[in-house]
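INPUT
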Amino acid sequence: MTLRAVIIMALGMVVAITATPLGHWLESTMVSHVLVELPLLVVAGIIFALPLKPVSQPLLNWVNRGGICGLITASFLLAFWMLPRWLDTSLGDPWVASAKYGSMVLTGMILALSWPSAHVITRAVVKIEFLTMFFRLGWLYLISPERLCNNYLLTDQIWLGRGFLLVGLALTITWAYPILFGNAVLEQQLTERKLSID
Amino acid sequence: MQYWVSAATSFLSLCVGVVALAWGTDGGQAWTAESARRLAVLEQPVVLPWVTLLNQQGKQQQLTDPLASQSASGLTLMEFIYTRCPTVCLAMGAEFRSLQAELYSGLPSERHSELPSGLYFRGGEVKLLSVSFDPEDSIEDLKHYLTRFSANPSIWSAAKFARQSDLEMIKQQLGLIVIPEPSVGYIHNSAVYVIYDGRVVAILDHDDRKGIRDVISQYLPGTAGSG
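OUTPUT
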């Protein structure tokens, strides 16, 4: 499959989510909204960034050295849309909804343009922050006695809490596995990093 | 030089991010849409539109003037309900009943001054209003609802929207959200709306008795007698 075909598919997915009943359907439950719709938009953003990478590299070396600026921006974008208030508001306000869709695609693009140049320590920090975000939010949604979103039921919220914990667990296993059992893998990665820095 | 530029952009994005999160939560005060709308109303009261309701007697009344009260400076505590509601509206109704008892102590207004203690009001300045958002609720249902909670009809009225389009407007303006739920009927963000001079000046939890008392004494100073 050519890059062009992949980009067209990603574009189709974004249009389907933002402009067809599919988006409405995904947003009908909190779990599919947060753990399916938003990640799909981020993935679309990652794909959109693929052709930009070679073109923007000189500029990125200038303003986004080591991907730090981009990763900070992406974390804040994600954190903002994890606020129950704005997730909730996006369901009734088309402007806020558009901002949310745009932010998620942008987050994907920024991640794709920052991650490859991030140092292994930066990556570790981001991964840990990501894991703690999933566990924190999962815990919050599981224990909150009241509804955090007016548009969703309390049971929805509990399902999302479980979903967050599950995803957090899966990511922990995925990322911890090479550290625990794959010293060779880690060493190889470290060597690659050393070589690529000047 | 490259290091400096990237350090500056990183610092900038950190600052913008912190400012955005602070803005998005009203400085850490409103993490949910519900707390945001309550905060917004406190800062900028919402002027209620001219909306016609049908009360439990089938009579028309204005949303801003329940019970066609003679005192223009009256205060209304309003809540949204549906009469089939098996859960939270029961708690809300019970809370209103208890509030009614506290506010008026079952005595005619001319005898309120004799009350030894508690919060009470002269001349019926505080009214209670339960508004149904359920199009299926009939006038008869509203009447039953009031009877169920031993409502004093001169204090507490129930009403529904004369036009369904008005409900949509009110939902939009007040941030009322009603989700149909197959097993119980509806789920809604229940709250007490304090109306003063045609404006919603506060939105509180239905069981926040202290908050309700505070708002009443804030808007009707001198009418509250205690101790």
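end of record. The first helix of chain A runs from residue 3 to 19.
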